[in-house]
Amino acid sequence: MPKEFIVAIELGSSKIAGIAGQRNLDGSINVLAMVKEDTTSCVKRGVVYNIDKTVQCLNSVITKLQNTLQTRIDRVFVGAGGMSLRSVRNNINKEFQPETIVTQDIVNELSDTNRTMSYPNQEILDAVVQEYKVDSQFQTDPVGIQCKKLEGNFLNILWRENYYNNLRKCFDNAGIAIADIFISPMALADSVLTDSEKRLGCALIDMGAETTTVAVFSKNMLRHLSVVPLGGSNITKDIASLQIEDKEAESIKLKYASAYTDLQDIDENRTISTSSIGSLKAATLINYVEARQQEIIVNALNQIPEEFRDKLNGGIILTGGASKIKNIERAFREHKVDKIRTAKFVQQTIHSSNADINAHDGSYNTLLSLLAKGNMNCAGQKISNNLFGDDAGQTPNSVSFQVDGRSGKSAPAEDGKAQNGNAAAVKPKAPANDKKPEKDSDVNKGNDNEPKKQKEGMFSKMGHKLKDFLTGITAEE
């Protein structure tokens, strides 16, 4: 496995997904590993509500990635999204003496002042500069212009403070270092929107399991961000309300559901076979699915600020796992949406052998966009199968062991002698082929009258036995 790679983690309402990849010189990305864990019991509407279970899922994801990579993961990039993520506009004004020229320090001061804004129970994740008003003229870069009044217009991206803290706590408890936290909708936009769409004005609608995120762009800038607490799982729950098991309801949705069906195509006599209730009328399924899908679409479109609704010349771009439902574009067009496309994959060139990624159905676009945005090596040390966890062939500095119920440490023996006299303080177990003394006193009997050479020979033998003992332990393990 390569010594350098990037790791990204996405905490979704249906799954926590982790991915590792390597960026090539041509800008393409090789996916080295991708794993996922079900999060229906710990993540709700894109935010953590059960910390302990989320920690377990994170540990499982990291462990599986490390086992595949055979390399430790030192840090990860994380996506922030879900409910309570929203944007708020803010204006900061500053007046000057006549003939004052705007400097970069003045601009930075405006940005710093905006960052100090306090929102009850909410955290500023990022601040997007919209434009500057220099006296009565709007400018994107006011540095070097003479003026009496400067106004900075900012779009602050907010998230509930407790949600943000819970996310941090999960990674801290799991012992996973965070390289950086990216705002998922903005990272996604960089990977699925074209420069032309951002410039002309567009709305990116990310349809997830329990949330639908709307991000509006104009003149290459993010102008609005909001999240609707509705998603594809709501359709599944509606089908399940017909006395159908949850798993089968999801299967029926994926196989038969359609966001829009022409009246002439509805067959009142058609039925769908189910194991839960025997059969389900197709017309009933159509009514349930379309009613919920229309609710999601209407709420998503209503999130687009009125000032931009007639200026989206780049159209509406759909993405996300819930956008793969049949006839979703047709359903949007019923609401006077003329220009629309579905972004089924990111714009980056991705090389992968994973079937879920290669399905190109929009389900992993956010995860891939987080991977593409990562800019730091996340690889740690290579995982070794050596007993001591070091590279093969290295000799450990010390070995912990236990003999006759007592524990101690010994440095490796050299020239048949134990270093620092440690071996002489511990009596090793005799090898199976050696004759064990009946009593400890027999070993030391007559030592006071033995020549010095005999004493050194005895300690040398004990050093050899200790070395043989440690070698035996290593071989058994």
Give an overview of the whole structure.
This protein has 477 residues and is an alpha+beta fold. It has three domains: 6-83 and 164-187 and 346-382, ATPase, nucleotide binding domain (Nucleotidyltransferase, domain 5, 2-Layer Sandwich); 195-342, 2-Layer Sandwich (Nucleotidyltransferase, domain 5), CATH 3.30.420.40; 399-476, no CATH class. It is 32% helix and 30% strand. Strand 18 (315-319), helix 10 and strand 19 (340-342) form a beta-alpha-beta unit. Helix 1 packs across helix 3 (161-173), helix 4 (184-192) packs across helix 12 (365-373) and helix 6 (232-240) packs antiparallel against helix 8.
CATH domain topology of the largest domain:
Nucleotidyltransferase, domain 5
Average pLDDT number:
85
Radius of gyration: 33 Å
The global form is: globular
Q: How many discrete structural domains?
A: 3
- Describe the main β-sheet briefly: 6 strands, mixed
Structural class: alpha+beta
User: pLDDT under 50 segments (min length 5)?
Assistant: 390-456
Query: What is the CA-CA span between the terminal residues?
Result: 27 Å
Q: What is the CATH H-level superfamily of the largest domain?
A: ATPase, nucleotide binding domain
Structure annotation, total helices: 14
Order of strands in the sheet with most strands: 12-7-1-2-3-20
The tally of strands reads 23
* CATH architectural label of the largest domain: 2-Layer Sandwich
CATH C-level name of the largest domain: Alpha Beta
Helix content percent band: 25-40%
Strand content: 25-35%
